[in-house]
């Protein structure tokens, strides 16, 4: 289970997370490791891809304190994924350590799943920002088309 108070990254995805950031002169689209991980978790959740971490990265990025996510307003996603996955409103409890551990674990696995998707999508890309914009644009137009295709409301009088 996840260590309380920290969000971990799989060792096999650490290089990708670092490449996705602009830390230490990098050219990635995200300012912090936390931003990259939140994006990956949202992507993993959208595609319902939850993958166990395996070996944990001890260095860049080391496990990230939950306070970083809270200070940036990203803690809501951790809570939302916990409630959605378990269908238990008690996951929002700030007093029970077991719920925090479970929430973090769910979030980490969705982030790991999202990072797997990104590894595939970004393979061979020189500019991650440009490729991410293409991915987001494709997702946006794909969902618009699907909604239109099944929208029967235009047949109502």
Major sheet characteristics: 2 strands, antiparallel
Structural class: mainly alpha
Number of domains: 1
Shape: globular
Helix content: 40-55%
Strand order of the largest sheet: 1-2
Question: Would you mind describing this structure in some detail?
Answer:
With 157 residues, the protein is mostly helical. It has one domain (6-126). The protein is 55% helix and 3% strand. It is built from 6 helices and 2 strands; from the N terminus they run E-H-H-E-H-H-H-H. It has a two-stranded antiparallel ribbon. It is globular, with a radius of gyration of 17 Å.
Topology:
Elements: E1 6-7, H1 14-19, H2 33-46, E2 64-65, H3 66-71, H4 75-86, H5 97-122, H6 128-149
Antiparallel strand pairs: 1-2
Helix pairs in contact: 2-5, 4-5
Entry keywords:
single chain, 157 residues, mainly alpha, two-stranded antiparallel ribbon, 6 helices, 2 strands, globular
Short recap of the structure:
With 157 residues, the protein is mostly helical.
């Amino acid at each position: 289970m996840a260590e309380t108070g920290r969000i971990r990254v799989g060792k096999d995805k650490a290089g990708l997370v670092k490449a996705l950031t602009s830390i230490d002169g990098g050219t990635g689209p995200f300012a912090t490791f936390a931003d990259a991980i939140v994006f990956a978790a949202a992507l993993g959740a959208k595609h319902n891809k939850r993958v166990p971490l395996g070996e944990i990265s001890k260095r860049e990025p080391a496990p990230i304190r939950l306070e970083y996510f809270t200070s940036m307003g990203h803690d809501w996603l951790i809570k939302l994924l916990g409630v959605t996955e378990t269908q238990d409103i008690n996951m929002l409890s700030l007093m029970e350590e077991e719920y925090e551990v479970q929430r973090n674990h769910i979030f980490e696995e969705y982030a790991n799943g999202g990072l797997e998707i990104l590894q595939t999508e970004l393979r061979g890309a020189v500019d991650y920002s440009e490729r991410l914009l293409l991915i987001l644009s494709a997702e946006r137009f794909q969902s618009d088309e699907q909604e239109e295709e099944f929208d029967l409301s235009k047949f109502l009088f």
